[in-house]
Write a structure and sequence with these properties.
two-stranded antiparallel ribbon; three-stranded antiparallel β-sheet; binds glycine; mainly alpha; 6% strand; Glycosyltransferase; disordered N terminus
Amino acid sequence: MRKKLGLIASIAVVAFSSCNTHSSEDYSWIKKGIDVASHQLMLTAVEIDGQQQLPRSIWTGYDMNFLCEQLERDSLTFKDSLRVRPLSNKIGQRRLCGIYDWTSGFFPGSLWYTYELSGNEALKEQAIKYTNLLNPVRSYTGTHDLGFMINCSYGNALRLAPNDTINAVMIETADNLCGRFDNSINAIRSWDFGTWNFPVIIDNMMNLDLLFTVGKMTNNPKYMDVSVRHADKTIDHHFRPDYTCWHVVSYNNDGTVERKQTHQGKNDDSSWARGQAWAVYGYVSCFRETGNQKYLDFAVNIADMIMARVQTEDGIPLWDYDAPAGDETPRDASAASVTASALIEMSTMVKDGDKYLAYAEKLLKSLSSDAYLAQPGENQGYILMHSTGSLPNGSEIDTPLNYADYYYMEALKRYMDLKGLTYNQLS
Ligand code: GLY
């Protein structure tokens, strides 16, 4: 797959550079991304209308030998019976999810960003509709993913169409997220399933933005206190000396470490691509909200590690940095879009920001090329192709993911803001 992606990307870059003669800088790749997003999101919103569900990905199956090769494990220790295989008639179909799924906020969030970037009012109507669908999540307490679910949907609604209901939903949700914080352990509990005593996953750093927003909304210091204590605990235990991170750290009740593991990466000692992306994004947010240099230094070290470790030509990482490199090894476009978004923001915070902006721009240009950006009407209505959800669990392998789309749109928005660009200036 890798060679094919590289070839398509080069053809796309040549095609784009020759068609914009109006400005010294060619931004037609951004316009193409926004136009594809508008088309795909609108198409999806209409097609799923009335189902009370949201688009998450495309159903994939898996081949056991392929999984064993990727994980470098044999099929005796890695049993097929542990995985759920979708019915064959589902494979290739759009995978929808309910409102309590961890990814439910991303589709409304992508609608908000694409409305903001394009000015298309029809997208705003859909954004409002799919955001409102998530209203019952305000009383849900069963996961740490409340930040993803409500900040990406209602959080963007708050920016673009504020009203008192939005505030109430966000405050109630933030309180439920704080309810998962343990005062002795100093962390927010991530999951309620599994055999861990108190699991905390690196992804949990992404939920702090909800708490930061609600802290400012209410002037109540408890949200900042919880966030800072969680971020500090994570710095202390999730990272290796080279700034790569474990996926799952579980704590004993006294706050000591019970276990360090992976759930979605290749093995416990590997560097799962999306985990590294969640990490850098999380600490950029922490610096933005606290001004504490410690968080920025940490984010810079993680970013430097990512830039050194990702060896693909187009910058889109393999699903795990330690996966066997090969043409068939799945990429994770979602990790690239999260990283791009984080690095654009981080580039404004550091003296040598240009190198981080250049890296983010490279990722965005790759994602906006025909190798990753869908053709309008294809890809079951998703914007980007080639992400990986959870390879060890046989789930969502080399497929679109709604969060790859969300952070791609967020990164385009951040990039345009930084460059002072509006949609009308793009072609
Ligand atoms: N938060 C789950 C994931 O990144 O797949």
